[in-house]
Amino acid sequence: LIFSSSGITSVAILGTVKPSVMADYDEEIPDEEKIKIASDFIVNSPPGEFNEVFNDVRVLLGNDQLLKDGASSAFEAYNETQFTPAKIEGSAEVLVTEHGKVGAGKYLDPRSGQSFAFDHLRKAVSDVEAADVDDCGGFRSAYEKAVTDYTEDHYEKGTCTVYGKGDEVVACIEHHKFQPNNFWNGRWRSQWTINTKTGEVQGVLRLQVHYYEDGNVQLTSNKTVAIKVPVDDPTASAEKFVREMEKEENQYQTAISSNYVVMSDTTFKALRRALPITRTKVNWHRTIQQHGLAKDLTKGK
Fold first, then answer.
1. What does the mean pLDDT of the chain come to?
2. How many angstroms separate the CA atoms of 193 and 204, rounded?
3. Residue 100: φ, ψ to 5°
4. Number of H helices, E strands in the chain
5. CB under 8 Å to 208, separation ≥6 — which residues?
6. CA-to-CA distance for 186 and 149, rounded, in angstroms?
7. Geometric angle at alpha carbon 175, from 171 and 179, rounded to 5°
């Protein structure tokens, strides 16, 4: 189900999946196709459910070595697109993103001025060492301070990382809530690319929620925005950016809430017939009386 409103695209996926084993099929599937299928499952894992999907894919593939050798790039893609937080001892959390990649399996933590190796399967940090950080003439550090303060004020357990790349500053924010005991998980991500020469800003806001109690419903929503900020002074530019970012994110979150109401009142009702095929409500009281059920119940039959 796809919903589009005010520049927001939302996709809700309903259904259930029961893993099988590829070897059970009569026609042999080539290893390349098996890896492609397994990788697609892994990359599209709902937030907070990577391990569960990985374990199901192991059963589906039935070949651990093939999975390890062929799908390792999918582990990397998942963590980078999900903005997976990583923890370096003695430093604040840093996000694993494509913007911080400095080598094979290594990422930059601009805040602490360090690089680190990241195990995409175990989510473990190692090989931490000093690294150079592009501060974009003071813009990166100014934006880092402003975005960090904003994240702490607006997200209970949010994490942000701000990168410098020549004339651009890239700010990434991640916040998640995982409630497996209540059968739901969700993640918020936003990415903002600021051109320090022109002041043009491109933002991408993403929300992903999975609810799976007695069913399977996924909501994936995203919105792109464009704003402009002054670039005469790094601190003033960062402060203006945060005010604009707050306005855009608030509008997006409000629109998402409105979409929930629309889906509840229209879309989901359309999936279930409110009336029986006769298009009339059932008079249960009269039906019980007519069939003598009331008397039988009274007599304890």
1. 86
2. 9
3. -100, 5
4. 9, 13
5. 46, 47, 186, 187, 189, 218, 219, 220, 221
6. 23
7. 165
For residue 300, the Cα-to-chain-centroid distance in whole angstroms is: 54
Q: Which two tokens stand for residue 294?
A: 């009331």
Strand 184-195 and strand 168-179: the pairing is antiparallel
Q: What is the pLDDT of residues 72-112, one digit of tens each?
A: 999 999 999 999 999 999 999 999 999 999 988 899 999 99
Distances (CA, A) of 289 to 280, 293, 295, 300, 301: 19, 6, 8, 16, 15
| Residue 256, H or E segment | helix 234-262
Instruction: Give the position of tokens 């009331």.
Output: 294
Name the residue type at position 31: D
Check residue 137 and give its pLDDT: 95
Q: Spell out the residues 6+ positions from residue 118 whose beta carbon is closer than 8 angstroms to its own.
A: 79, 86, 96, 105, 106, 107, 124, 125
Query: pLDDT digit string (tens) for 200-240?
Result: 999 999 999 999 887 888 888 999 999 999 999 999 999 99
- Using only the alpha carbons of the chain, give its radius of gyration: 25
Complete DSSP assignment for 170-239: EEEEEEEEEEGGGTEEEEEEEEEEEETTT-EEEEEEEEEEEE-TTS-EEEEEEEEEEEE---SSHHHHHH
Asked if 217 contacts 14 with a C-beta cutoff of 8 angstroms, the reply is yes
Which amino acid is located at 268 in the chain? F
Name the strands in the sheet holding 114-119, side by side, starting at the edge strand that comes first in the sequence: 101-103, 106-109, 114-119, 124-130
State the Cα–Cα distance between residues 111 and 291, nearest whole angstrom: 75
Q: In whole angstroms, what is the distance from residue 240 CA to residue 227 CA?
A: 11
